[in-house]
UniProtKB/TrEMBL annotation:
This is Uncharacterized protein. It comes from Aquibacillus albus. Residues 55-77 are annotated as: Disordered. InterPro entries: YuzK.
Length: 77
């Protein structure tokens, strides 16, 4: 089963509603919760959670790049 999330932003004088078209399965929801401690609904609702998750993803990506660089260095000695 897929769920669709909407972003609602409160602005002076009204709200902005945006369809983010984020579809996810229960397996993806479980993985998100296990990896980051939040589900997709909370991730979409709370900016501070999105920022934390994205910082963690960026950090993990940079660590992976460093591992690759180190492996390339060792292989091409």
């Amino acid at each position: 089963m897929f769920d669709t999330l909407f972003l609602v932003i409160k602005r002076k004088g009204g709200f902005i509603i945006s369809d983010l078209n984020l579809n996810y399965t229960s397996e993806m929801e479980k993985a998100m919760y296990q990896s980051h401690g939040v589900g997709y609904a909370e991730y979409e609702r709370k900016l501070n959670h999105r920022l934390k998750v994205e910082r963690n993803r960026e950090h993990s990506h940079k660590e992976g790049q460093q591992v690759k660089i180190e492996m390339d260095r060792l292989v091409h000695r």
